[in-house]
Amino acid sequence: MRQTPYPITLLQLKTTANYQENLERLLHHIKASSSKLIVAPEVCLTGFDYENFEKAAAFFEVAIEAISAIVDQQIVVLTLIKKEHGNFVNQAVVIHQQKIVYQQNKYKLFTVGEETKQFTPGEQNAIVPFEIEGVKYALLICFELRFKELWRQLEGVDILLAPSLWGKPRKQHLEVLSQALAIMNQCFVAVANSANEDMAKSSAIISPWGDVVMDDTKEVIHHTIDLKEVKKIRRLIPMR
Fold first, then answer.
1. How many whole angstroms separate alpha carbon 130 and alpha carbon 109?
2. What SS3 class is residue 82?
3. Structure pTM?
4. What is the domain range of residue 122?
5. Using CA atoms, how far apart are residues 147 and 95, in angstroms rounded to an integer?
6. Residue 1 has pLDDT above 60, yes or no
């Protein structure tokens, strides 16, 4: 059944070199939140720790076990480094009712950040909408926000999730693209970006009308949305 009102929490976190410390901070915020949906930044537990990739990938199971143990009716979204079939991937996971209910490997890798040298890309056709308790979601990971063909294949969702590690020099791009995506796809967009010194922050919850809730000064951004707005805007401005 569709939940309305629907509370969302974005975690605008800094990532330290201490994986366990990062995990404890994430667990603290999950426990403290009464939101239905919690979105954390891309690779917020390890960062792109290329020099310690095996260690970062091994931390995947540690993190999933700890997060799953405390997540029941909430929905928690983040990405982690994982080793699959001998290759490293950047995998988004959606955790609900103490288990992973959706997984998606990053498809569009950021060349400037050497991601193409470090990760095996996911598949475009694996980027699909998914449903939890009557709400339709989809996921784009950071750089993937730039690609209009991905916007099109995710049309019709209620909430589009975007865990990100987006750099400060391209801050305006993140904000404009996220708002445009919400308006074009007539859905809510929830972007959780890193608060590291060289990152853009700009974490935001954006309505189908393009209204933006954003605060670069906060580690936790909370906002309650009304999912009825999705149907309302699609009736008001039909796109088909």
1. 22
2. strand
3. 0.97
4. 6-236
5. 26
6. no
